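Morning run. Coffee first, then this:
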Amino acid sequence: MSDVDDAIAAARSSWSRIADPGPAMPDRAPRRAGQGARRLKRIAAAVIAILIAAFVAGIVTPIGIMGVFLTIVAILAVTVAIAVWPTTADRPLPPPEKLRTLDLKALPAQTERWLQAQRRSLPAPAQHLIDRIAERLRTLSPQLARVDPAGESADEIRRLIGEQLPAFVDDYARVPTTLRTTERGGRTPDAALSDGLGVIEREIAAMTERLAQGDLDSLQTRGRYLELKYSGDDPAG
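And here it is:
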C-alpha cells in the first residue's frame, strides 16, 4: 500500500498550495442515465407475466369480465408500484468521510455510487479511469463475502476504497477550475488526478488477484490432479 499512499500523498500535497480554502462542493447528484429504461423493462416484464398468468388461468377456467377487470387492476398496480418505488440511485449518497465506516460488503457499491456522482465534473481521461475503477469494484465485491471484516485485508480495502480514493477525488474538486490545467511541479492537477486514479485502479486489481490467489491455486492443483488421474496417458488408467 505504500506506493499508493505515496502517490496520493504527493498529489494532495502539491494541490494543497493551490486549492480553494473554502469547503468542498462536489457534485453529489446521482447518475440517472438508464434508470428510466430499466424501470420500463421491469414494467414490461411484470405486465407480460400478468398476461401470461391470466391466459393460463383462462385456459383452465373462464375468468369472465371480473377476471379481465382484475387483470387490468393488477397491471395498473404493478406499473404504478415499479414507477414510484425508490431505487438505489434514489437513496442519498453517503458522504465521503463515512464510506470507510460502511459494512465491508457494501463498500464497493457505495463507493462506486459516490464516484459516479463526481464523474461528470472530472476531465475526460479521469472519467475513463472512473469507469475502469467501477468495473474493478464490481469484480471485487463478491470476494468480500469471504474476507474477515476485522482482518488486515479488510482494513487495507477500507483504507484504499473507503478513504484514500474518495479523499483523492475530493482534493481535486477543491482545486479551482482555472488552475486545473496549470502546470505546477512538473504536471497539471488534471494529469495528477489521472495518474493517481491509475495507481488506485491497478491496486484494486492487485487486491482482487490476492484475494483470489487461494482459489487460483486450488483450481490449478485440482486440474493437475484430474490430468494425472484421468488422462489417457496415465498407465494406471
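The CA atoms of residues 50 and 74 lie 7 Å apart. Good start to the day.
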